[in-house]
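Tip: read the tokens left to right.
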């Protein structure tokens, strides 16, 4: 009888663990598709990032990557219309942190080229990794986080 109880408890716990996983990101969950084949992420005020899915959506960001590590980030409004980010800061800070235990995070910048924020992921960032982008718009910091990239 003890074996059945143990199996029942183990089965229950194994079903509960995914509910505790952090897969909601730092903003509302998005169901849109990227316009350029990239992945989408919510853009929220950095100070609200801890609210998770309850953070207010400010914009949407699409990350497009090439195999050689070049990246472009397109910014959209809630209806997926391109946002004119020309008035934003001319660059955004990016924090790349690998999920591999013991690997070191790297910071770099991407520059606004008139259409996108573009740059290069530094060499030596092992996969999988997360990229957090911090943009500046009218004196406020905005965050867009792309998780579990490979």
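Filled-in amino acids:
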């Amino acid at each position: 009888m003890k074996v059945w109880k143990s199996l029942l408890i183990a089965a229950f716990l194994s079903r509960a663990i995914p509910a505790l996983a952090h897969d909601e990101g730092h903003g509302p969950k998005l169901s849109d598709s990227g316009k350029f084949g990239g992945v989408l992420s919510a853009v929220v005020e950095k100070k609200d990032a801890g609210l998770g899915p309850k953070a207010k959506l400010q914009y949407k960001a699409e990350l497009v990557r090439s195999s050689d590590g070049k990246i472009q980030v397109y910014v959209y409004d809630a209806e997926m219309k391109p946002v004119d980010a020309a008035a934003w800061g001319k660059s955004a800070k990016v924090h790349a942190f690998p999920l591999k235990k013991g690997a070191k995070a790297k910071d770099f910048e991407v520059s606004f080229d008139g259409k996108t924020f573009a740059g290069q992921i530094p060499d030596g960032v092992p996969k999988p990794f997360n990229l957090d982008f911090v943009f500046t718009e009218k004196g406020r910091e905005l965050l867009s986080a792309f998780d579990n990239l490979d």
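Confidence is low (pLDDT under 50) at residues 6-24. The helical segments are 2-16.
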